[in-house]
Write a structure and sequence with these properties.
This protein is an alpha/beta fold. The chain has nine helices and nine strands. Strands 1, 2, 3, 4, 5, 6, 7, 8 and 9 form a nine-stranded mixed sheet that branches.
Length: 276
């Protein structure tokens, strides 16, 4: 019954997407990956990777604007909450995780694409671009945790109860704390809370923070967007770390953004960055 509630909430969020949105199921050796796609089929490809537990539906405040220019492909991460269905061969390493993403792009007939990830999705996007830069037209990282700096001990302390024993109440309380009580979409909050508490997920495969040497000769056009009010890390310190290893990157601090409010708040600013 709870998974039915989750599915219903997921569908309600998708109702906020453009009318031409298509659900695409792509098969790889790791199972069937669900992608929600919209925008002109002949437009340049933009692949969106959400944060853990957020599902592809989280881009509801962004896709209408983005689909004016791009063919948008929002992915339900394999092994995470959502409508991707794991197969018999689980993803057990970073190499397999990145191989899965390559296979998804192959099945979508995308030799290259612009790649945008938020939070855990940004960790995957960065690791992928560093190893497969010829396939990434542009890279946008929304408040990427543990990519350019350490996560705050205070944040990790607040997250610990959810990691150890997730339930709906804890998930809602945690997001309310991190966003300072920001009024988030109630249907999407249902997706997040119900998914965290009741959705069967696999072990999360986390790419390690890249060493500075990994960025040598990295020439993918990169934008790093940081949440000025986020509690995952200190945005100013992370911005300095980005400049140290990737001086060519564009960095933007959204002063009123929080980690878990992105990419929905502030949607207009996020959309403008992706469209520019």
């Amino acid at each position: 019954m709870t998974l039915e509630k989750f599915s219903s909430a997921y569908d309600r969020v998708l109702q906020q997407w453009p009318a031409d949105t298509q659900a695409i199921d792509v098969k790889t050796v790791h199972g069937t990956t669900r992608i929600n796609a919209c925008g002109p089929v002949d437009g340049p490809a933009l692949v969106l990777l959400s944060g853990a537990g957020a599902t592809s539906a989280v881009w509801f405040a962004n896709v209408a604007a983005l689909a004016q220019r791009y063919r948008v492909y929002a992915v339900d991460l394999m092994g995470d909450v959502g409508r991707s269905v794991p197969g018999d061969r689980s993803i057990d390493s970073v190499e397999e995780l990145l191989g899965w993403l390559s296979a998804v792009l192959d099945e979508l007939n995308l030799p290259t694409a612009a790649l945008c990830g938020h939070s855990y999705g940004a960790m995957i996007a960065l690791a992928y671009a560093l190893r497969n830069k010829s396939r990434v037209d542009a890279l946008t990282l929304l408040d990427p945790n543990a990519c350019f700096g350490s996560m705050s001990p205070r944040y990790l302390l607040h997250a610990l109860p959810i990691l150890l024993a997730p339930n709906e109440k804890r998930q809602r309380r945690f997001v309310a704390w991190e966003t300072d009580g920001l009024a988030l979409d109630s249907d999407w909050l249902d997706v997040l809370a119900l998914g965290a508490a009741h959705f069967p997920t696999a072990k999360t495969i986390v790419p390690k923070r890249p060493k500075p040497a990994a960025f040598e000769n990295f020439d993918v056009h990169t934008t790093v967007v940081l949440a000025g009010k986020g509690k995952v890390h200190n945005a100013t310190r992370v911005e300095a770390s980005v400049r140290a290893v990737l001086p060519s990157a564009r960095t933007v601090i959204l002063e009123n953004a929080t980690h878990h409010g992105l990419p929905m708040h502030p949607a207009a600013e996020v959309n403008e960055i992706l469209l520019s």
